[in-house]
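Teaching note: in complex prediction, the entire set of molecules is handled at once rather than each chain in isolation. The prompt given to students was simply: 'Predict the structure of this complex.' The entities are:
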Amino acid sequence: MSEFIKGSALPQSFYHTPTLDLAEALIGKVLVHLTDNGILAGEIVETEAYLGIRDRAAHSFNNRRTKRTEIMYGAPGHIYMYQMHTHHLLNIVSGEEENPEAILIRAIEPVAGRALMEENRPVQKAINLTNGPGKLTKALGITMAYYGASLMKSNVFISNGGSENPAVQTGPRIGIPNTKEAKDYPYRFWLQDNPYVSR
DNA sequence: TCCGGGATTGTCT
DNA sequence: GACAATCCCGGAC
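The expected output is the structure of the full assembly:
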């Protein structure tokens, strides 16, 4: 297993990839958060792509450029955080500049710092620690403070070290019932048979 | 300024 | 399966 140090962050070039390809390529990579208390890391096992102005389910649908979505219009490889009810969700900005696309990280499998995660988010069943988009940000201690941060320069980043040649499955996205045709797009990707996949 | 809604989760039936 | 918690965002006025 590789050490999850800052220098292991995947380079900018990794993110210069069509969003659907990138959403699939992220399966099996490792999401890392370096903190003063230690390293928290988990293998990405579920993602969803949001394809910008033509995707009714995306926040940037119809080119809706606001303070919230502004980071989506920037260069890929940055963090788009936003609040959903009582939770904070982590997205990776994708698409070239002025092409506001993003990828939601929906689930991870812990690989380092599990004890720290359980301090951040106590659970009865181990499986519930990181098997959902709101759960994993809480467990990893990733907050709105990371909105706009670079995955090449901040303490949150993506590295190798997870499954190699993962078996990836695809299907419709979760939790977007009111988006007409977009709710059926097969823009969700997950690691086959992994127990941390949200559903 | 007001008001409706949401890329979720936990709890209860 | 239903629903509340809870709060920021975005559009309407």
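Point out the following to students. Chain A has three helices and eight strands. The mean pLDDT of chain A is 96.
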